[in-house]
Amino acid sequence: MSAMAIAPAGRSLRGVRTAPSATASRAPGPQLRAARVPDRVGVGPEGAAGRLRLTRRGRVVVWLLALSLAAGVGGAAASAQADGPAAGTEVRRVLVAPGDTLWGIAADAAAPGEDVRDVVLELMALNELSSGGLQAGQTVVVPAG
């Protein structure tokens, strides 16, 4: 990697050799000029804000992105379906007698082969019970069937 020292015009740095003038060694021919760079991005020489300019390919890409986004949103909206009203669960009321337990009521209500633990959890959710404890005289809703 090399380092390059640039001295102000008309001066030289001590111990550093400067390159000869670029115009002295160049053959006659077309001269290149540096383009004017604006001080701020998006502002032209007149001070007016510049517009974003897209090439033809850029416009095609933007349109394709917009169409794919619209198709995705439209497809998602078309496939959305609202659920109808949930079918109600047919229930019967059971009056808790002294000595009855939630497990015993669930075992009576369970279908053959159905796990009683699942029925106990269903009864707790259906009756909004925080625990499995019941009191005599309490009414419990049990799924019929």
Automatic annotation (TrEMBL):
Start and end residues of each LysM domain: 92-142
Record carries keyword Nucleotidyltransferase: no
Membrane-spanning segments: 60-80
Organism field: Cellulomonas phragmiteti
Classification via SMART domains: LysM (SM00257)
Keyword Membrane: yes
InterPro entries: LysM (IPR018392), LysM_dom_sf (IPR036779)
Name used for this protein in its record: LysM domain-containing protein
Region Disordered, residue ranges: 1-31
